[in-house]
Amino acid sequence: MTTPSIGTLGVMAFDTALPFDGSSIALEIILPESLKETAEIIQTSGLTGTVEQNKERTREGLKRISGSVKLACSRLMLDTLLPYICGTAEAANVFILADTIPEFYLMIDRGAKVFTYSGCRIAKATFSGTKGDFLFLDLEIEAETETVGNAGTYPALTVPTEKPYLFADGILTLQGSTRVFENFSLTIENQLNTELFGNNLTRYDIPLVNRVITLATDHPWDTDNTDLIKQDLNGAAGTLVFTNSTVVTDVLTFAMAAIQYANVSPTLPGKDVVNLPLEGMVKSSGTTKPLIITNAHAV
């Protein structure tokens, strides 16, 4: 009996083209990950004079590849993935939203076998943080094909060692004032058409058809935050800026053109602090994109 594969020893790599080699980029996974192929078995289900089902009257059907991975935000990881979240290449550390998003490749070493995913696209990217923890990025990924290779085919790569961002590195500005906030999630939902199979059993394309961006935050309900309820319909610009306190030249900025909030009044939860949870839609304003991300760094 052989030793089972150990999740602790798993690794993941990113690339823009095949094959994976020493130039591929290793990404640290915050477990668990769930990217996998799910295949259908279809059967005729016709009348055969018996209640038994015959294995010969089956074929393999459609194959869908979906799943999620979680990463801690840091300079190199963001430079690697932001073009595939936003749709444009970096220009002077700035990433602009586009109407299409490019595809990429992932390789995951799961011990007994190495899995390669082609035609990957990011369906949802959620930046989030809470007190005392890192700034995380959760990705929901759709892919076209999965291939399985032998153990040992994962290339020799160096795992990133740059300092990740903390939630405590962040400063949130809403309605022109900085705000105390307990947690946040900024979600970029790239709505994809995942059902383009044509006369294939695997997807031949996964195009972007729409995009929705939301910002959710929790605040103390006090006199400093009374202007956050019953806001103007057009909303207002906002920023969320993370300055890495260990590497101060690493600065991640989310600039939101307009955040629209449908009013939700605070309520009394009991014998505790009263919170004001907000969830807004991040929209464009005139010709200004709804969200512009800047990943500034010295190197």
UniProtKB/TrEMBL annotation:
<dbReference type="Pfam" id="PF18906">
    <property type="entry name" value="Phage_tube_2"/>
</dbReference>
<protein>
    <recommendedName>
        <fullName>Phage tail protein</fullName>
    </recommendedName>
</protein>
<dbReference type="InterPro" id="IPR044000">
    <property type="entry name" value="Phage_tube_2"/>
</dbReference>
